[in-house]
Specification:
CATH topology of the largest domain: Rossmann fold
Distance between the termini: 49 Å
CATH architecture of the largest domain: 3-Layer(aba) Sandwich
Number of strands: 12
Structural class: alpha/beta
Low-confidence stretches: 1-45
CATH superfamily of the largest domain: Response regulator
Number of domains: 2
Organism: Parafannyhessea umbonata
Radius of gyration: 20 Å
Pfam families: ABC_sub_bind
CATH class of the largest domain: Alpha Beta
Protein name: Putative ABC transport system substrate-binding protein
């Protein structure tokens, strides 16, 4: 059975070592986690000893969650549940970054210092931080939009290197089909996302293509932080008929406030994932994030117990059949949207 340690790296400690810069972090040591340093790793050699051979001992796993919102919370819970039933012996060190990329980089250094055998990254920026700061460490991503586009894999089918993962590339085309069924008179679409996230840039381009193929006008409304996102959303009002919000961590974190403001202004939001709809968005066609987490746990087992190389494990993407349409009746009522259009 696994053991669990959490909260062992402080934000102040991570940023102090960073000194405000990500450069040179791989060679720095962070103060470690007492709970994680006891009991050994089974291999005794940290990340380097993991690669390419099976292990039966305890696997020390550093888990880094970029932000605390519904999608990533669900992925982490699915990961932990699957790992518990995997038959592996393990110890978890779970860290929450509060959407702070500098903190992600600091935690990556701490995982190396504490000789974690493997790392699991929830969210694309978290995966990028670990892969860049400690490239020798096997890392499995969960809820990653596109491993190759994020620069951590040669391709999604054969990643190469030490990173693989369970992707959540949102079905943009299906979401635009949903948009047109619910809002047939909409012609102007505003794409809301944070420019600090490469995963969102990928989806914004896909949304533009989806809009163009339907003769819709798409405009990007974006910013580099949460404060700017509120301004971006406000600037949409009167300029677009509907807002499209992809699986963006900054948007997901502030979704309750964004949705409240948008609904008050009569602006529907078509979302990238179900958690954003639960927070007040109108609708989505999306995936089960618990399953994304379970798939990541299975990859961890393949690397640790079966000795597979991360770079030989193809990235996983949910199947089309697993998509589920989720709507928010309260939002629909406030916006005057007839959800019965989906029954046709």
């Amino acid at each position: 059975m696994g053991k669990y340690a959490s909260g062992c790296v402080t934000r102040r400690g991570a940023l102090r070592v960073l000194g405000g810069s990500a450069l040179g972090l791989a060679g720095l040591a962070l103060a470690g986690c007492d709970a994680g340093s006891k009991g050994g790793s089974g291999s005794g050699g940290g990340a380097a000893a993991v690669i390419g051979k099976p292990h039966k001992g305890t696997c020390k796993i550093g888990v880094l969650q970029l932000a605390d919102h519904a999608a990533l919370d669900s992925a982490r819970k699915g990961f932990e549940q699957e790992l518990k039933s995997s038959g592996m012996r393990y110890k978890l060190d779970v860290q929450h970054a509060n959407n702070d990329v500098l903190f992600c980089q600091g935690v990556a250094g701490a995982f190396a210092r504490e000789k974690c055998n493997l790392a699991v990254a929830l969210g694309t920026p978290a995966l990028q931080a670990i892969a860049s700061i400690v490239p020798q460490m096997p890392v499995v991503g969960a809820a990653i939009t596109d491993l190759a586009a994020a620069g951590v894999a040669n391709s999604n089918k054969k990643p190469g290197g030490n990173a693989t993962g369970a992707m959540d590339l949102t079905p943009v085309e299906a979401q635009f089909d949903l948009l047109q069924r619910l809002l047939p008179s909409a012609r102007r679409v505003g794409i809301l996302y944070c420019t600090a996230e490469t995963n969102s840039e990928v989806q914004a381009s896909m949304a533009e293509d989806a809009a163009a193929s339907r003769n819709l006008e798409a405009t990007r409304f974006c910013a580099g932080n949460a404060d700017g996102m509120r301004e971006a959303l406000s600037s949409m009002v009167g300029k677009v008929d509907v807002c499209y919000a992809p699986t963006d961590n900054t948007v997901a974190l502030g979704m309750k406030a964004y949705a409240k403001a948008a609904t008050a202004a009569g602006l529907p939001i078509i979302c990238g994932e179900p958690g954003m709809v639960e927070a007040g968005g109108l609708a989505t066609c999306g995936y089960d994030y618990a399953e994304v987490g379970r798939q990541a746990a299975r990859m961890v087992r393949r690397i640790w117990r079966e000795g597979e190389l991360p770079g030989d494990i193809p990235a996983w993407q949910p199947e089309e059949a697993s998509r589920k349409t989720v709507t928010n009746e309260a939002a629909a009522g406030a916006l005057g949207v007839d959800l019965s259009a989906l029954d046709a």
